[in-house]
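Researcher: Quick test of sequence recovery. Tokens follow.
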């Protein structure tokens, strides 16, 4: 690239900044580069606050479907208010800029809300994949020196209830730095709340204001720590910052996915991985589009669950993993053929290299070989929350409004 700094400066100007940078790139301590030196911003402001000041205020930000079939939609204004309530609640619990908050949650709206609430405060979130063991969770909590944990009583996966709170109980035996564990009531199963550090999510947000002044952050201030899987040694915490990260993912979505704010974007990853951070939560919301969040297993209760979701919500861009594609291949092409997938205009693959056979099946059987001629902007899906049969607005009891 002939003008590296000019390229990224142009990309950064697409976002809102409280203070413009003095220098695009500081190479003085290479390889520890600094981007947008002295720039002030906050990724949550670009994902939420700026949108509620525009025509996107009542646009659908999140479409959620639980494994059990509960459906909900929340607008940008809904998501903004829910996030502000949690940001106020965390502040009341003593969380301040630079504190670490571990999120041990499945793929539900609360995960996005918690990530954004931490970002608003300037706290550093650390999302731990909900499939990890108590030992893996403990190691990540202690390494990050987390002050607060946000978790859940249980969630649905492949027809079973995963009792996530019990895993936290086991980890907490050896997590001395943790002051508070906030528990979301989701599966409505009995849990032990006798440890004085445990509080219900619904209780901590009760009565909190829906207004919160998003904190200006330096471009180089940490946003989140995400740990490697640990399969090849001790997990390593990778730190991403507010400034460069938001610029990078916003440009990626535009260049790789040709994202439009009228798109329905579904990344099937888990929020415990970097793909989930970037392409379930931050990227689509910064772009002002609609992101799909699905709680459950892609094969439950039948192998066509993914295609039902694509057809039901008119998904335009589907971003999934080669592992998932190969799994779906085993159940046959008749499953995607049963559903109207004509709104799909772009198929993406992420996670590991994809073999030619899997890509060809994905392209021909799921995209119906149409994506190459389907590159125009599809029908506007900027829904009102009530314009689809059976659509539900987010139950107010979920978030305290």
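Model:
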């Amino acid at each position: 690239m002939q003008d590296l700094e000019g390229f990224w400066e142009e990309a950064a100007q697409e976002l809102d900044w409280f203070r413009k940078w003095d220098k695009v790139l500081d190479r003085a301590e290479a390889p520890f580069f600094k981007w947008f030196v002295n720039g002030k911003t906050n990724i949550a402001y670009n994902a939420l606050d700026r949108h509620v000041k525009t025509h996107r205020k009542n646009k659908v930000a999140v479409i959620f479907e639980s494994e059990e079939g509960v459906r909900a939609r929340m607008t940008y204004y809904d998501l903004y208010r829910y996030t502000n309530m949690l940001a106020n609640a965390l502040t009341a619990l003593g969380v301040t800029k630079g504190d670490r908050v571990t999120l041990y949650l499945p793929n539900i709206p609360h995960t996005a809300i918690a990530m954004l609430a931490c970002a608003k405060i300037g706290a550093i979130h650390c999302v731990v994949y909900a499939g990890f063991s108590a030992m893996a969770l403990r190691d990540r909590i202690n390494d990050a020196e987390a002050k607060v944990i946000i978790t859940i009583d249980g969630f649905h996966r492949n027809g079973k209830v995963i009792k996530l709170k019990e895993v936290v109980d086991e980890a907490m035996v050896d997590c001395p730095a943790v002051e508070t564990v906030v528990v979301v009531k989701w599966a409505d199963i009995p849990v032990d709340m006798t440890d004085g550090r445990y509080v219900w999510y619904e209780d901590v947000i009760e009565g909190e204001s829906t207004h919160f002044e998003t904190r200006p952050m330096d471009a180089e201030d940490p946003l989140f720590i995400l740990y490697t899987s640990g399969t090849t040694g001790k997990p390593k915490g990778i730190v991403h910052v507010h400034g460069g990260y938001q610029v990078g993912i916003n440009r990626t979505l535009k260049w790789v996915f040709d994202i439009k704010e009228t798109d329905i974007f579904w990344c099937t990853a888990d929020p415990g991985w970097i793909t989930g951070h970037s392409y379930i939560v931050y990227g689509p919301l910064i772009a002002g589009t609609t992101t799909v969040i699905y709680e459950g297993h892609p094969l439950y209760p039948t192998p066509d669950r993914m295609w039902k979701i694509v057809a039901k919500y008119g998904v335009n861009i589907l971003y999934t993993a080669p592992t998932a594609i190969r799994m779906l291949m085993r159940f046959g092409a008749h499953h995607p053929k049963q559903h109207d997938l004509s709104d799909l205009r772009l198929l993406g693959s992420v996670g590991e290299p994809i073999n030619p056979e899997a890509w060809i099946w994905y392209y021909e059987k799921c995209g119906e070989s149409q994506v190459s001629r389907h590159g125009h902007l599809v029908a506007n899906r900027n829904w009102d929350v009530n314009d689809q049969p059976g659509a539900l607005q987010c139950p107010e009891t979920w978030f305290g409004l």
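Residues 371-397 have pLDDT under 50 and may be disordered.
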